[in-house]
Structures are given as structure tokens and as C-alpha cells.
Amino acid sequence: NEPADNFGPTPPVQQTGDARPAPFLSDTKSRAAIPETAPKPTAGPQAPPAPVFDAAAAARFKDGIAALDRGDIDGADQIFADVARRNPKAAYAWTNRGLIDERRGNVSEAESKYRRALEIDRAQDAAWDNLTRLSCRNRRCASIEAELREAIAKSPEALGARNALVFALISQEKIDAAG
Predict the structure, then answer these.
(1) Nearest-10 Cα torsion for 163, 164, 168, 174
(2) Integer Cα distance of 166 and 170 in angstroms
(3) Neighbours of 19 (CB within 10 A)
(4) pLDDT per residue over 128-179, tens digit each?
(5) How far is it, in rounded angstroms, from Cα 159 to Cα 131?
(6) Nearest to residue 163, comparing CAs of 124, 123, 133, 125?
(7) Helix 125-137 vs helix 159-171: angle between axes, to the nearest 10 degrees?
(8) Sequence-distant (≥ 6) Cβ neighbours of residue 58 within 8 angstroms
(9) What pTM was estimated for this model as a whole?
(10) pLDDT digits (tens, 9 = 90+) for 100-120
(11) Is-contact 68 27, C-beta < 8 A?
(12) Exposed (0-12), middle (13-18) or buried (19+): which is 9, by Cβ within 10 Å?
């Protein structure tokens, strides 16, 4: 038995510092940094290379963020879809599209887009975080817990999956296991 939904409504677009679903990835000082040059190699054989954004793709992504800042959710979704079409490895574009769908109440579409982001980049913290919170809000904490444990077993260095697992455990009141 999973606890009742105690997470409240989905936060507004620009809310920050909340324990519920993350805001759109618009703060370039946080996890939404857009790689504009070739990424540095990452440790581990399973780490996929980060996408290389050319100047036009980076500018287009920033246009999507600006649209969100203006409250133009539909425009932002179209821009992020365009970024993903032009650069299929743009995991953050998929994550932002998932956030847009989640705020629209399209839970299955949001989940699909978070999963698409994770297909591209299994180490993306934001996608794991949002997928886990969405799953727990929809009373599927136990299933996402199992998925997170599997992901961690395959990639023990996966910090995003580890953090999301802690959230899933706490959400299920498995406090000792989360420590």
C-alpha cells in the first residue's frame, strides 16, 4: 500500500526550491546548462555522449526557455519539439516537453517524454527526478523503486537515479531504507 497523494498540485512553471516536480529547466546555472561545445568524456562505459549543440540549436533551446518565461506554454512546446527533431539526442528538450505535458495534465505523455530523455541520457538527473515524482504522485512508487534499483545496479555511479530512489523510498515511508 502506498501512501495517499500528499504532494499537492503540480507547481507553477517558474517555482523553484520545491520538493515536488522540478520547474522547467530554464536556470542555466542549474542542471539545464546547454552544452555549446563538445562535451568532456565521462567515466564509465555506459555513459552516452552528451549532445553537441551548435549555435542555432542552443539559441532555439533558449527561445523555448524565453517562451516559458513569457507563459507561452504552447510556443515553448513547439520550440522544444523542433529542437528534439533537429537534434534527436537533446535529452533536456524531451524533459522540458515532459514537464509541459505534466502541467497540462497529460500524465502518460509526460511519462513517455521523461522516458525518452532517459533513453538518450540515463544519467540525466532531471528526467529521473521528474519521472519518479510523477510515478509516486500516481501511486506507482513501488514500480519506479524497482526500476530505479535496476538502473543503479547497471550503473552504480548514477547519482540521479540514486537521488530519485531516496525520494521514492521516503514517499513510501521506508525511511530506514532511504538513509
Answers:
(1) -10
(2) 6
(3) 10
(4) 999 999 999 999 999 999 999 999 999 998 899 999 999 999 999 998 765 5
(5) 15
(6) 125
(7) 20
(8) 34, 36
(9) 0.71
(10) 999 999 999 999 999 999 999
(11) no
(12) exposed
Taking each helix axis as running N to C, give the angle between helix 141-154 and helix 125-137, from 0 to 180 degrees, rounded to the nearest 10.
160
Residue 99 burial (10 A CB sphere; 0-12, 13-18, 19+): buried
Q: Which of 23, 24, 20 is nearest to 133 (CA)?
A: 20
Tens of pLDDT, residues 41-91: 344 344 445 556 678 888 999 999 999 999 999 999 999 999 999 888 899
Residue in 125, 127, 131 with CA at minimum distance from that of residue 162: 125
Q: What is the DSSP letter of 90?
A: -
Show Cβ contacts of residue 14 under 8 Å, excluding neighbours closer than 6 positions: 23, 24, 26, 68, 69
Three-class DSSP labels, 102-143: HHHCCHHHHHHHHHHHHHHCCCCHHHHHHHHHHHHHCCCHHH
